[in-house]
Fold this protein.
Amino acid sequence: MDSKRPLNLPWLFKMAWRDSRRNRSRLFLFISSIILGIAALVAIYSFGDNLAEDIDDQAATLLGADLVVSSNKKPSDKIVPLLDSIGNDRSKEQSFASMVLFPTAGGTRLVQIRALEGNYPYYGEIETDPAAAGKTFRQGRDALVDKTLMLQFNTKVGDSIKVGELSFEIAGVLNKAPGQTGLSSSIAPIVYIPFRYLQETGLMQRGSRVNYKYFYRIGNATEVEKTLKKISGKLEKEGLDYDTIASQKKDTGRSFEDLTQFLSLVGFIALLLGCIGVASSIHIYIREKINSIAVLRCLGLKGWEAFLIYLIQIAGIGLIGGIIGAAIGTLVQQLLPLVLKDILPVAISSNISWAAIGQGILLGLVISVLFGLLPLISIRKISPLNTLRVVHEGASKINDPLKWLVYALVLLFIVAFGYFQLDGIKQALIFTAGVIVSFLVLTGIASLLVWMVRRFFPTSGSYLLRQGLANLFRPNNQTLILIVTIGLGTAFISNLFLVQDILIKRVSLSASGNQPNMVLFDIQPEQKQEVARVTQANRLPIIQQVPIITVRIEEINGKTAAEVKKDSSSKISPKAFGSELRVTFRDTLTAAERISEGKWRGNTAKDGTIYVSLEEQYANRIRVNVGDTLTFNVQGALVPTIVGSFREVDWNRIQTNFRVLFPKGVLEDAPQFHVLITRVPDSKASVSFQQQLVQKFPNISVIDLTLVLSVLDEILTKIGFVIKFMAAFSIVTGIVVLIASVLISKYQRIQESVLLRTMGAKRRQILIITALEYFFLGALASFTGILLSILASWALAKFSFKTAFAPDLSPALVLFVAISMLTVIIGLFNIRGILNRPPLEVLRKDL
């Protein structure tokens, strides 16, 4: 034998082709488990490519202007001249939440009022029906009303709407505003009014929470950049934010990059499930080829040549699987824009992404080769003596360095994929560790269950039951692979149902029992007593009534925001200075608060020292410790304080909770508004009470938590559908792997079934034994996955959501029954041919 004979690649390809002729359907079945995973990733990659292009194309219409300057406080007098000098064309908008009244329907609703002046938007348009209303409403006392409100209150164009103390004629139905999504219109429907009528509404009162925006048309990107260089420093000094088309592209792309990354990881989980199926299936396939390979070795074939013959087979079928998966993914991508349209601010195109298709095909080839190498590598060790031996020597050796190299390559592949999806090695390693732990846990549970069946195997009872149980741990059993693949897929989809149930119940607690379900805010001090009287007149309880003051942090430990930014060694977070805080004052803690560090002082100290209490998570974010000094800007007055304590706050309770709490004797005379919390017994009482409030106090806004719950349910349903749409690839892949694994087990179970028939077993007995075996397999797999999902959702409820864990297990039960029955059906489908033919014919054909 010539040991130095060069590899004859054409001959190897010819041998691979000839050997595959009797096994092509089985080879395709092996690789079918990765097709859906590739399809999911190609669909997501195509969606991401189109999303990036569409954001680039539509960024100007999202922003509506070349430059937008915004603030949640009124700009100072010294910056106004600068704001009035920017650009060639200027518009401005003031927006705030307020109640509106629909006189025709007699209904009220909390909406977002936008008072607009100028020709904004300069790019795109405010989409209305009729189309001209988007421009003409500014000419008279007219309004544009969101279409969801028009439908809710059965209102039509020409009817009126009352905003504060003024009535406006509805000039048009608002279909879409710049940057608005379907979900945002459900949460905060928009009503546009002309800016010049804003003061006459009577809604602009002391303490009103107003957002200010200034829109500018400047010119090309170079002119915008030049303008920003001149004014950015002054804007930042005054605490004003600004956006350009370029920053809008970047921010929007970054926001939805997170979405595509998440969906990519979901698709990758489906692909990993398929990878396990590939490795297991090829392992069984190679075991059946041992005798054929040994014969070839006797004829002078090298071990590496035998290895390459089957590697060519697997690579070829993997390439075909990648092409099929890429084609399916391209079709699925046509549906994703429809599924996600309500949460996207841009219209998504459905163009074919050849880059995504190329990635999918390459991924199919790499996956099939990489995960096929684990069983294929042992072919090198098959000896010509295997023609005389039953045991496959060398296949189970664990000291083969090439096997460890393949394991390392698999881990490297997972880490690399995670790195490119998550843009960070730390996140990639965490993701890889999570995948490994999940598989190890499932493998451990599967092994434990098999051990328990073997250890506590019944010695008496029905022979058919014992035969079905014994198949779970006999040689060539499929228990481990099925529990790992189907268990992980079941765990994933079950966990989605459980987490959604937790979120709904977490908020639904507010509408149960004696919990408050209505919040009144923006109550002026002079209205406090009268609002309380109206509430009591409607036989509604005043559960809580507290003052709220708007403040800003001016200094921390004597350092201002500018000084903290300059000092690179400072541990203080610059974000502490960036936003307004809503605070209150009182001398006692509520039932939702507990001091976690320091000491609570409810009154100002005798020496005048003011000790404030910070919510502990907020304190950690801004990096402040007990004993640090904070100087607050309270409507222009500087108030020095000391951090006296940290509080642990139960944010799940429907009541006013605050990040910063002042003692009594400090803020009583500061500009403030009040919040009142009550509970209404039913929707009829809610409507009546809100109508009275809007008529008497048009500036007061009301949050009806029953409406919030319905909107939240709608949002969670839409988001949940998006996630489940992609998660379906995981569960379907798991089912495909189940089908493939069970069908593969057909070749392992033929001998046993034929022997049973030869020994006189009846058709009914074999059916019962098979049904029991596959029922146990399906039940163990789905039970393991559901158990993991319950543990995972419990951990999320306790440590992330911090809420009680009382899951609705009905979806999990449906999954358990469905997976178990599907396994039985496929298993019985396997043996239909064996039962309908004589044993000798089956042995001649299949063995």
